[in-house]
DNA sequence: AACGGAACCTGAAAGC
DNA sequence: TGCTTTCAGGTTCCGT
């Protein structure tokens, strides 16, 4: 279940594995991931092309090809790009080979997406993205203005991809803990200094997670045996790292939120 | 226009 | 032990 940091790690790995290399072979399974586009459309798009660059914006990836075309990728909830040799691995949905290097897209739940763009034009979801906290940074004044215009809670507003591209359920919870803001506060009620704390919280949380997770393979926290690198996410009952009050869990907009009832106000 | 909720999938863990 | 329910870091679509 990737958010900005996990997708950034995926981008760095893809860059290292495929950057500048020519795709010599590829295959794409017929799944909902390719949404109606024929597998041969993807094969034709990538085979023989060089991977000019790997870009990330929010939770989206883009492999730009020497032809001017592009392969867009969203990891959904359980998508991963992994480097593997040998036969297809379990849940493998696509494969890109560049000589000796073989990279596979694995996605059990199939919420991810691959989009073939022969002209390189980005999909609507990409064009609708707001500023990326890591690459663009968030402007506190702009963010406050956006937050003023909604009736939603701050937690739900932060997960809006047009407000902060790449922030999801975990980063929103972690950022609000760092900012000492309650997730159930109305987004429009935040003062300028509180919005500034949220901006700092988002950037700090993303950088921290990136440092914890940078590796040639991503492990998602709900996978068996994975450890939890987060401060409050998934830590109900554990002491708040700041004030030792037990962390509380509640549901908000259908998603679990974790927060400290004492120091987040 | 904006919001809440269901739907889309599969697997692991928790509950009985 | 085995069956059932719940939950999972995503987006999209549909109804109000």
Can you characterise this structure?
The chain is 28% helix and 20% strand. It has seven helices and ten strands. It is globular, with a radius of gyration of 19 Å. With 265 residues, the protein is α+β, with helices and mostly antiparallel strands. A hairpin with a 2-residue loop joins strand 2 and strand 3 (60-65). Helix 4 packs across helix 7. The protein has a four-stranded antiparallel sheet with strand order 1-6-7-5. A four-stranded antiparallel sheet has the order 2-3-4-8, with helices on one face. A two-stranded antiparallel sheet has the order 9-10. The protein has helices at 4-18, 39-46, 124-127, 140-148, 154-158, 169-179, 192-213; strands spanning 25-28, 51-57, 60-65, 70-74, 80-83, 92-98, 101-106, 113-117, 248-252, 255-259. The longest helix has 22 residues, at 192-213. The chain binds a DNA duplex (16 and 16 nucleotides) through residues 1-3, 6, 32, 59, 74-79, 91, 108-113, 125, 150-152, 156, 161, 168-173, 220-224, 230, 233-234, 253-256.
